[in-house]
Write a structure and sequence with these properties.
Layout (H helix, E strand, L loop, with lengths): L1 E4 L5 E4 L3 E4 L14 E3 L5 H4 L2 H4 L2 E5 H9 L4 E4 L4 E4 L2 E7 L5 E4 L2 E4 L4 E7 L2 E5 L9 H8 L3 E5 L8 H11 L3 E5 L11 H11 L3 E2 L7 E5 L3 E2 L1
Parallel strand pairs: 3-4, 4-5, 5-6, 12-13, 13-14, 14-15
Antiparallel strand pairs: 1-2, 1-16, 2-3, 7-8, 8-11, 9-10, 11-12, 16-17
Helix pairs in contact: 4-5, 5-6
The chain binds nickel (II) ion (NI) and manganese (II) ion.
């Protein structure tokens, strides 16, 4: 599976299908049209261009209802559930965060915020969404054994690097990729420092990607 960070919380996973997670792309465009879109929560920096893409979109009930009303073929689900879409498995995990849907000047509750464990071609990717640290991340390790953990480190709206270091230990994925930082001045962080501390104190590896950069993920083997 080829994983590409498109900046902020947006990743594309290319394998037997192309998955786009949280399609808010700060700079540039998506390289390839996705087959399936996954949205962790309704905030504009995650919902992004999901309506315009109008692909099969996996989201929590409330967001899925909103998307369906816009003509998007939505796949509703909720926390703790698992669905398989075109051979790709999506498990919706809890996230400690809020959610608010904005539409043409109005705003309304967007359901709960979530994360995903996405399994395709034998590789499992955990995208934490926007979240605080919570100790039940250990259940994600026990249940799904992700090969990669995509963790927010920006602080202010999500956990910062210190909390994300503990999250990485709880999740136990051999490879960690930081996200949701440096997009705006309010979430400025030093990802290299985060990498150095994790790699010095654990056996995990951290891949600090530049927006647009890709990494090949092999099952249980980490990245190269
Ligand atoms: Ni958010
Ligand atoms: Mn966010």
């Amino acid at each position: 599976m080829r994983l590409t960070w498109l900046g902020h919380a947006c990743f594309s996973l290319a394998g037997s299908q192309t998955i786009l997670i949280d399609p808010f792309i700060p700079e540039g465009d998506i390289a390839t049209e996705p087959d399936i879109v996954a949205v962790t929560h309704a905030h504009a920096d995650h919902l992004g261009i999901a309506v315009d893409l109008s692909k099969k979109t996996v989201a929590v009930n409330e967001v899925a209802k909103y998307l369906a009303a816009k003509g998007v073929p939505a796949e509703p689900m909720n926390l703790g559930g698992t669905i398989t879409v075109d051979g790709v498995r999506f498990t919706m995990t809890p996230a400690l965060h809020s959610s608010w849907l904005e539409d043409e000047g109005a705003g309304f509750y967007g359901g709960v915020a979530a994360g995903f464990v996405i399994t395709m071609d034998g590789v499992s990717v955990y995208h934490a969404g926007d979240t605080a640290l919570f100790s039940d991340m250990q259940l994600i390790r026990d249940l799904y054994r992700p090969d990669v953990a995509l963790l927010p480190i920006g602080g202010r709206y999500t956990m910062g690097p210190e909390e994300a270091m503990i999250a990485a230990r709880y999740i136990g994925a051999p490879l960690v990729i930081p996200m949701h930082y440096n997009t705006f001045p309010a979430i400025q962080q030093n990802a290299e420092n985060f990498k150095q501390i994790i790699e010095r104190t654990t056996s995990m590896q951290v891949a600090v990607l530049a927006p647009g950069e890709s990494i090949e993920i092999s099952p249980k083997g980490g990245g190269k």
